[in-house]
Amino acid sequence: MKKSRFLSTLVVVLTLAVALVGCANTSAPKSTNSASAKKDFKVGLVTDVGGLNDHSFNFLANKGLEKAASDLGITKGVVESKQMTDYETNLTRFAQDKYNLVIAVGFLMQDAVEKVSKEYPNTKFMIIDSEVTDRPNVASAMFKTEQCGYLVGVMAGLMEKTPGIPNALGKNTVGVVGGMKIPPVDDYIAGFIQGAKSVNSDIKVNLNYTNKFDDPALGKQTALSQIANGADIVFPVAGGTGTGVIDAAKQKNVYAIGVDADQNYMAPETVMTSALKGMDTATYDIIKDTMDGKFKSGDVYFDLSNNGVGFATPIKAVPKDVVDKVNDVAQQIKDGKIKVSNKMPAGF
């Protein structure tokens, strides 16, 4: 009887011990699995034809991806498109390789994203600068760049009216070089023209499109022609082509306004400010949301109100009263007192 009770007690103790060991062991793999899950979360980025060295939108999107890899521990992949026919192939490659999120950089990739996202419904996609609203697995990062275009336009218009500014200002003429006549380009330009004319109704705006985002030599040639025709401020909205515009401004000792990123480092005495587009922030945020199970399809907007667009700190040659005026206009846009349209003004 005693022996039977002893054996029963021993069985209970051993059972509890095994259970406790099992419970203790479940906590360790969780930490390992969490780290593994982050590493196993794969994000692929497909560039537009401008490539990573465009100092502009591809560069910024990749910057956001790099930050996600550093901060969140994800696995990243990048492929540069050499021509527009590469878009579908490159997007498909990441989807076939079971990437959790595939990022398409640029409006020109819309058709490819619509097709590939339909073929791979279990893969999440993000496209920058284009609206794909009928796919539950596609997030569209949209930027109200007409707002930051307006701000740098105000600065350009005021600089043309300010006496005594160096670098040949005073011709009351500015040049704008667009990459292609597509909405993400024209949104910037529409805002710029409105902003410049809001403070300087007589200002002349020379506008040319290169139809290229990856041709600095063509950008330089176009800008040199504009400068020869009186432009003493040039504003490129042309990806990698715009680097040639900045080079032309530096060569001819006039001013340039950068785009997308703060491009002052390319010519510190020439680039007086830049219209900023937070594609790095948008890329990082959507990656993180997707990791956290908070992926949201459809349009995700970035504007002045959430610091999605803005303008870079101007150089010292820009007078304080001009900077103060631009800051005041920015606040009025945030407050809804100034409405900026993304429609091109009549005549352009």
From TrEMBL:
Source domain of life: Bacteria
Localization, UniProt: Cell membrane
Residue ranges occupied by any ABC transporter substrate-binding protein PnrA-like domain in the UniProt entry: 43-341
Membrane topology of this protein: Lipid-anchor
Signal peptide: 1-24
A GO-annotated cellular component: plasma membrane
Family: Belongs to the BMP lipoprotein family.
Protein name, per record: Putative ABC-type transport system, periplasmic component/surface lipoprotein
